[in-house]
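Is adenosine-5'-triphosphate placement plausible here? Inputs below.
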Amino acid sequence: MGIEVVVEGLTKSFGKQNIWQDVSLTLPAGEVSVMLGPSGTGKTVFLKSIIGLLKPEQGRVLINGVDMVNSPEREIMETRKLFGLMFQDGALFGSMSLFDNIAFPLREHTRKKESEIRRIVMERIDIVGLLGAEGKLPGEISGGMRKRAGLARALVLDPQIILCDEPDSGLDPVRTAYLSQLLIDLNAQIDATMLIVTHNLDIAATVPDNMGMLFCRNLVTFGPREVLLTSDTPVVSQFLAGRREGPIGMSEEKDAATLAAEQRFDTAPLPTGPRTVVPQLEPSPGMPVRQGALRRRERVMSMMGQLPEAARTAILNSYTPAAGGARA
Ligand SMILES: Nc1ncnc2c1ncn2[C@@H]1O[C@H](COP(=O)(O)OP(=O)(O)OP(=O)(O)O)[C@@H](O)[C@H]1O
Ligand SMILES: [Mg+2]
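Reply from A.M.:
I modeled the complex. Tokens:
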């Protein structure tokens, strides 16, 4: 089963540029979480910090008692084997076939025999729907296929923690929907703890158990998906509605003058309205029940008292079977 990831007071800067500060959150074991945030808010830097590839100046990332920030490099390397990381750009080797790309971590990090490697690689290729394409070079396949190859490669070492950096970028809406289902099915099959960074609002609305958002060098919020999906915080509702009006500008933060001007012209309140929370995706027929979802239900029920009312209502609705089996 997946492993809990505890992030405590993480702060990262590059030189004088602070990326984010005092970020704390827990990725619950075996649950699926999504991190949202405008471009440049440091989502990729956050993933790289969790896996220990970048070193925040302050804070800890605890995984099985190992601190991915401050522990000896040998322990960090060992713990990194628990991870599968799907990079934003796919990061495939252009001169290697898909098979060799996906086999790479096995050849690099294990002493498995070639026959065993073949079995594992073909199984993962099957999971992501790339059977038949294993002999192709990355340059000979579509962007969506490259994404799925990157996912297959992230899966070969049986990861207990999976980090996906914008798995949907460059995909059309239909392929994004398939990918969302694939991520949920994967979670049902291996019960890995998953963190997905995305800009895609459909993924955000349908895939995760938990959701957070980075903005203006801070973690705006992190918690059950319903909290963010029903939030009235301007930055959150602007992002989820994909509006120009609001605190997020082209260069992430609008300057004060632009905001003031906007407010002068937009005297009418922005249409917020009750936001509906669509049901979370279920595993495909024939897949096991998501153990993470079962644990999540108990966890969320026990924290109901601390949640805003809109989120509480949405959670209760999602756990109450609708009459006649209809799932509005
Ligand atoms: N190795 C590095 N050295 C210096 N600055 C860096 C480094 N890596 C990232 N940055 C800076 O950190 C900031 C956040 O970058 P990051 O790639 O994490 O953003 P992001 O939220 O993933 O954006 P996007 O949604 O466009 O992928 C950027 O300003 C970037 O220039
Ligand atoms: Mg990024």
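Short version: The radius of gyration is 20 Å.
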